[in-house]
């Protein structure tokens, strides 16, 4: 299996600072091709969210360079990935909290990290940045850690009601605010001829899953320049429709 990768980010129409941090890398290992992608969204309501998101993204980048080459010498184990990612998040949570105390501010970030091998994906999430699997249909792989998502889960709101409910951006989990972090981790089979997408919440507020599927899978798959073009198109669509948040997306096509 081969991978084609692309990414795009935009400050948006109202904010002066882009608090999103992201990276995506394609790797060749002894056990096959891999892609590692991370997207972090600094908390817009808190001070210096760009510092928290950049620190968190850098920590996962360091993990990729320091640990993944050794792990990829043989079959990857779910338990090992889980343990190392949770440890990295615990360390970053403490560092971001310490930074806030020293600088008299409260800051935090979401994180969505995705490792794709030729057979399996490894996915970590805290907050409301998302990962999707896009093919003939569009499947959200992550679960939002928000007040609204919790109300839907409890049956207090329908999904339709949730779209227009207040407190859309109020998180129940993030990195850097509370003393402990509780990430969700997901593992699954990688599908060929599929787009795996990571995005900040600003990318998905004003567009539909049908538009994601049309532009990122039907029109953009497998051609890196075309993938980038479609990402930029959807970012522009968000801007036209009044999105006020930072807007970021990573796409990975499997072939």
The chain-level mean pLDDT equals 93
Question: How many extended strands?
Answer: 10
Number of helices: 8
Distance between the termini: 5 Å
Structural class: alpha+beta
Query: What order do the helices and strands follow?
Result: EEEHHHEEEEHHEEHHHE
Q: Biggest sheet, strands in spatial order?
A: 1-10-9-6-7
Largest sheet geometry: 5 strands, antiparallel
Quaternary assembly: single chain
The share of residues in extended strands comes to: 25-35%
Radius of gyration: 17 Å
Low-confidence stretches: none
Overall geometry comes to globular
Helical content class: 25-40%
Structural summary, described in words:
By secondary structure, the chain is an alpha+beta fold. Helix content is 36%, strand content 27%. It is built from eight helices and ten strands. The chain has helices at 49-66, 68-71, 78-103, 147-153, 159-163, 201-204, 209-218, 224-240, and strands at 3-10, 20-29, 32-41, 111-116, 120-126, 130-134, 138-140, 184-189, 194-199, 247-254. The strands form two sheets. It has a five-stranded antiparallel sheet with strand order 1-10-9-6-7. A hairpin with a 3-residue loop joins strand 4 and strand 5 (120-126). Helix 7 packs antiparallel against helix 8 (224-240). The longest helix has 26 residues, at 78-103. It is globular and about 45 Å long. It starts with a strand and ends with a strand. The mean pLDDT is 93.
Short description:
With 255 residues, the chain is α+β, with helices and mostly antiparallel strands. The protein has helices spanning 49-66, 68-71, 78-103, 147-153, 159-163, 201-204, 209-218, 224-240; strands at 3-10, 20-29, 32-41, 111-116, 120-126, 130-134, 138-140, 184-189, 194-199, 247-254.
């Amino acid at each position: 299996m081969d991978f084609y990768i692309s990414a795009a980010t935009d400050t948006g129409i109202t904010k002066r600072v882009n608090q999103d941090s992201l990276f995506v890398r394609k790797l060749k290992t002894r056990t096959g091709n891999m892609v590692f992608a991370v997207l972090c969204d600094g908390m817009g309501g808190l001070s210096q969210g760009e510092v928290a998101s950049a620190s968190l993204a850098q920590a996962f980048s360091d993990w990729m360079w320091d640990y993944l080459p050794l792990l990829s010498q043989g079959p990857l184990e779910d338990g090992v990935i889980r343990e190392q990612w949770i440890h990295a998040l615990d360390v970053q949570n403490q560092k971001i909290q310490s930074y806030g105390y020293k600088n008299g501010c409260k800051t935090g970030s979401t994180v969505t990290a995705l490792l794709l091998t030729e057979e399996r994906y490894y996915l970590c999430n805290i907050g409301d940045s998302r990962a999707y699997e896009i093919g003939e249909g569009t499947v959200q792989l992550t679960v939002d850690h928000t007040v609204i998502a919790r109300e839907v889960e409890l049956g207090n709101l329908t999904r339709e009601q949730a779209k227009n409910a207040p407190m859309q951006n109020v998180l129940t989990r993030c990195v850097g605010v509370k003393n402990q972090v509780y990430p969700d981790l997901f593992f699954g089979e990688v599908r060929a001829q599929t787009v795996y997408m990571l995005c900040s919440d600003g990318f998905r507020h004003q567009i539909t899953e049908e538009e994601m599927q049309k532009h990122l899978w039907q029109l953009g798959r497998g051609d890196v320049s075309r993938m980038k073009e479609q990402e930029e198109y959807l970012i522009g669509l968000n801007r036209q429709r009044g999105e006020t948040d930072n807007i970021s997306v990573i796409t990975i096509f499997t072939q």
